[in-house]
Each structure stands twice: as C-alpha cells, then as structure tokens.
Amino acid sequence: MPKSGEPEPGLAAIGAVILAAGSGRRIGTPKLRLEAAGRSYLELILDRLGEAEIAPVVCIVSADQAEWAGPRLAAARRLDDPQPEGAPGRRQAAASSLLSNLQPAEAPGRQQAAASSLLSNPQPEEAPDRPCAAEWSLLVNPHPALGMFSSVQIGVKALQACRGLFIIPVDHPFVMLPTYLQLKQAFQHHPDAVIKPAFQGRPGHPIVLPHFTFAAVLTAQPGTCLREVLLSVHMRRITLAVNDKGILRNINEPGDR
Question: pTM for the complete prediction?
Fold first, then answer.
C-alpha cells in the first residue's frame, strides 16, 4: 500500500483538463473561440499540450460549443499522430531541447452523471465511469451555470486514473511551452504536491493536482471552488518560479486582450 499522499502503483501519466464551458458573458463571446495570431484560445492550449507531450487531455465545453470544438480537437489529435515511418508526432520534437535544459524544482455532483462524451461526431452519451480511452477527448458540461468547479469535477472524474492533472482555464492561452515543461518536470519529482507557477512572486495558472486530491474534488458540493477544496486537504504545496507572465494573463474583459 502506498503511503498517504503517494500515487498508487499503475496510475497513468500526468494529464490535463481544459476548462472551456464558460459563456464569456463579460467579453461577449465564449472564450475558447477568442483568437490570437490566427489560432483560437482552445487551439493555442492544445498546441502547447501536444508539444509538451501531456496526455490524456479532456476539454470541457458547454453543449452549444461542442459542434465547434469537436473538429478542432480532432485536428489537434492528428498533429500528434505518429508519422508513417514511426517518427514522433510533428510537435513532439519541439520540446526535447527545452526539457533537457530544465532543472528539478525546489522544493461530483449530479452534473457528472449527465456529462457527454463528444469525439469527432458529437452525440450525447453517459459520462464515463472509467477514464476516457482516447488521449484527446471532449466532454460536455450540461450545467455550466454551476460554475467552473463543475467542469473541474467532470474532468477529474474522466481522468481519475492519472497520477496528476493540469487544470487549465481556457482564458490562459498565453502560457509558454517552457512553463508546461517545468511544471511537468516538477510534478515528476514531487508527485504528492499541488504545484502552482508564479511570475515575480504572483501565482497563476495552470496548476497541477496530484492524484490523492481527486477524491476531495469529486465529493465536494457543486458550486464550491477548487481553492476551498484544496485548503481542506492536507498536502504539500509547491510554488514554482517561472519566467512567464502568461500565467497571469487572465482574459475577462475586451481590454484584457
């Protein structure tokens, strides 16, 4: 038996949950559709996850955005497919030189049962009781008005066989590849800790949750927030200094862009 806080044997690698079910009311459009440099915010995040070789990934969207998001997720998956000669996906090599230079870090409520699995041809289905088989998949939050934490619960339930999970709000698309790699490496050294990046002493997103926090997330009441849940759990907390102001760039108003 593993000690308290240690990951169980046989768990999968670190995965990611993209929180993209918000309506974007203040900014006037769903945030996953906002664009920078000709790419949607959703696609920018998928690009970074592919380059950092973080998988499995689930993206949580509202029902009215599933038709738009599905083809973009499918296109991102194709970019990471192995090439005919067995070469790695087209984006995987981009991370190798960066990773070699990184140093070790110091230091479900009712809505879950109604979540829908949407792949290339979205059709409503029961939420999976077991982890998603596909490495890149789309899930619908049928009650996004309950707040962001309801999407966190859906994503954690789908990927609960992972050793840890990146929790990524879709309105943080400007986080750089080295930051994802540093967080990933920090988690590999500290799989029992919640890891949060900080730029010039200011914490930001994404955070990484270890496996033993998942039960607290899944049993929390809908409508709470992730911060409150984590404060109730005894765990290590590591703040990782990164040279990336993108972790602080939260897009809420038109002027934030």
Answer: 0.78
